[in-house]
């Protein structure tokens, strides 16, 4: 049987994926999200990096059919962009006679967003603007109950670990005193 701490850790991770910023169900027309941003710790690429680490995971969790690709550059001077590939509702039945500049030959509309120096919340808002029909996932009563239980368990673990730390410190001090007494008795 797996330990309680490991199960609690996995459940916490799952709850972080299930609810929070980025917990959005996108319309089925949104097929792909591609991001370009820098590997470096450039402040103008911090928002895209945070979005990639946190919100994109939640987006992918709630939209398993969504393809997500990332291209990371080495220079902080490079642009940070996000590209959304959105299928037009008529693309399956009636391809356009004259494709526009932002439509590929497969009937996909491509929207490019400049995400440099933007926060993760701003990036999410932009995605929702370009993909109308997306809806945010709110925490259910059951989710809130689980979160409260996890917090309570974490508090009790922190309290017991502090008590153990105090006991260990007291035992170490007693051991050192005993060693000093023995050393004084030998001399």
Task: List the keywords.
single chain; 187 residues; alpha+beta; Glutaredoxin; 4 helices; 6 strands; elongated
List the helices and strands and how they pair.
Layout: H1 4-18, E1 24-25, E2 30-38, H2 46-62, E3 67-73, E4 81-87, E5 108-114, H3 120-130, E6 135-136, H4 141-186
Parallel strand pairs: 2-3
Antiparallel strand pairs: 1-6, 2-4, 4-5
What does this structure look like?
This protein starts with a helix and ends with a helix. The relative contact order is 0.16. The chain is 48% helix and 18% strand. The longest helix has 46 residues, at 141-186. It has two domains: 1-19 and 139-187, no CATH class; 21-136, 3-Layer(aba) Sandwich (Glutaredoxin), CATH 3.40.30.10. It is of the alpha+beta class and 187 residues long. The strands form two sheets. It has a four-stranded mixed β-sheet with strand order 3-2-4-5, covered by helices on one side. It has a two-stranded antiparallel sheet with strand order 1-6. It has helices spanning 4-18, 46-62, 120-130, 141-186, and strands spanning 24-25, 30-38, 67-73, 81-87, 108-114, 135-136. Strand 2, helix 2 and strand 3 (67-73) form a beta-alpha-beta unit. Helix 1 (4-18) crosses helix 4 and helix 2 crosses helix 3 (120-130).
Short summary of the structure?
The chain has 187 residues and is of the alpha+beta class.
């Amino acid at each position: 049987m797996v330990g309680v701490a490991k199960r609690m850790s996995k459940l916490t991770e799952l709850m972080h994926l299930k609810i929070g910023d980025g917990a959005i169900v996108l319309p089925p027309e949104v097929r792909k999200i591609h991001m370009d941003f820098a590997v470096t710790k450039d402040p103008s690429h911090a928002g895209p990096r945070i979005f990639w680490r946190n919100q994109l995971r939640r987006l992918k969790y709630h939209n398993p059919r969504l393809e997500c690709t990332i291209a990371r550059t080495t220079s902080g001077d490079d642009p940070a962009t996000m590209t959304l590939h959105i299928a037009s509702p008529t693309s399956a039945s009636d391809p356009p006679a004259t494709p526009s500049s932002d439509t590929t030959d497969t009937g996909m509309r491509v929207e490019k967003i400049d995400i440099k120096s933007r926060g993760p919340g701003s990036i999410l808002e932009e995605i929702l603007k370009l993909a109308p029909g997306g809806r945010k996932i709110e925490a259910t009563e059951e989710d809130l109950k689980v979160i409260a239980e996890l917090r309570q368990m974490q508090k009790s673990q922190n309290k017991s670990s502090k008590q153990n730390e105090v006991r260990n410190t007291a035992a170490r001090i007693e051991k050192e005193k005993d060693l000093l007494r023995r050393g004084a008795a030998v001399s």
